[in-house]
Write a structure and sequence with these properties.
globular; mainly alpha
Length: about 400
């Protein structure tokens, strides 16, 4: 009997090939974020652009992604999960390669917007697909998704630093090549009739659904919290490379440390914190610590080792928080997960769109210290916002039953 129960448990824990196809494609997709980061100063130098102009690479990317998140549900319901994922991969490959062939920073900014649209198609659908197709429940599925993000982000800077050391164009074209690999994974391993498409069969998806989802206070609370948190996240990601005083290889190595800690904590530490202290308490603790790290970076901006140490340590805080908040959103409201993800992601990426450009401008107008201070203040505001709205989000730990 015990043996039979063990076999059933093993069968339950065995993920379908479709989940692994999306998982590997996610790793490759999120390599794109880390690949580009080490070459930001090189782009500014070689294309005669200011830091604020180069940070627009993140602004256009996140702004388009935020808006595109509102239509991913409609596209996915019309064309199916597999076709939507493949379309996202193709769009990313096309626009990243074109970016690598461009000679003007404003052209690259525009192409990054197209890249953001492809990422929106892929990211929103990938999260929904992994959660829906997984045999292990929402919490473990989100951990798998965050593990893919962490692995992609941690490996990306190493490859970006290596390719960027040869030419800043290398990482852009490298993303295009990696997306071809992701395309092959999805085509060969993911069946056309997957469970995620069956789950939405017979239901009509409207472009207004994400806005209707915002009637649920919990979705708005987590979305705006992530929006404020992303002010700090993208300030660190887009602006820190400019004050490190390192070349492409050096920046890549720093962000490898950052990405490894992000990956490890998102998979191994976040679930333990969630179980022991609860999602909301753990999330607020991580956000508070991250805000303090940013403020430390703002005070000692000219001290190289402080900036490097803070960036690496921040990876642990971000890994924990990403898993905690993503799990919470999936359990926040009794609506389709794809709709919840679209509404949340729309709000979240607004912060990611504003923060990089604002950081560059604050540095140009006032001082190189101010972007980190402002980012830290925004993250602290997110903590206050969660505390004020605790009654609307405390239920998220009661939803997950698997």
């Amino acid at each position: 009997m015990t043996s039979h129960a063990a076999m059933e448990d093993a069968q339950h824990n065995k993920q379908p090939k479709a989940v692994w196809a999306v998982f590997f494609a996610c790793i490759i997709a999120f390599m794109g974020l880390g690949l580009v980061d080490p070459i930001l100063p090189a782009i500014a130098s070689q294309l005669d652009a200011t830091p604020s102009e180069v940070t627009l690479l993140f602004t256009s990317y996140n702004a388009v992604m935020a808006v595109a998140m509102l239509v991913t549900g409609v596209i996915s319901s019309k064309f199916g999960t597999k076709m939507t994922l493949i379309s996202g991969v193709v769009v990313i490959a096309l626009f990243s390669t074109l970016g690598g062939l461009s000679n003007d920073v404003w052209t690259i900014v525009g192409l990054r917007g197209g890249w953001g649209f492809g990422n929106a198609l892929f990211v929103a659908t990938a999260l929904t697909a992994i959660v829906t197709l997984s045999n292990n429940g929402t919490a473990k599925a989100v951990i798998l998704y965050e593990a893919a993000i962490g692995l992609g982000i941690s490996v990306g800077p190493l490859l970006g630093g290596f390719l960027g050391g040869m030419t800043w164009r290398g990482p852009f074209i490298g993303v295009g090549v990696l997306m071809v690999i992701g395309f092959i994974f999805l085509i060969t391993l993911m069946p056309a009739g997957d469970a995620s498409s069956h789950s939405t069969k017979g239901t009509r998806t409207s472009i207004l659904d994400p806005f209707r989802a915002m009637k649920h206070r919990s979705i708005v609370v987590f979305g705006l919290t992530a929006c404020l948190y992303n002010f700090g996240f993208f300030t660190l990601l887009a602006y820190a490379p400019f004050v490190m005083g390192l070349d492409e290889h050096g920046i890549g190595l720093v962000f490898i440390g950052w990405g490894v800690l992000l990956a490890v904590t998102s998979v191994f530490m976040a679930p333990k914190l969630q179980k022991k202290y609860g999602t909301i308490s753990s999330m607020c603790t991580m956000l508070t610590l991250f805000a303090l790290v940013l403020i430390v970076m703002g005070i000692w901006t000219s001290t190289q080792w402080v900036i490097i140490a803070c960036v690496v340590f921040a990876g642990a805080l971000l890994g924990n928080n990403n898993t905690l908040i993503t799990t919470a959103v999936m359990n926040a409201a009794p609506i389709e997960r794809s709709t919840a993800s679209a509404a949340y992601s729309f709000l979240r990426f607004i912060g990611g769109a504003i923060a990089p450009f604002l950081a560059g401008k604050l540095a140009e107008w006032y001082s190189p210290n101010l972007p980190f201070i402002v980012g830290g203040v925004f993250v602290l505001i997110s903590v206050v916002f969660v505390f004020v709205n605790q009654q609307h989000v405390h239920h998220v730990d009661d939803v997950e039953v698997h």
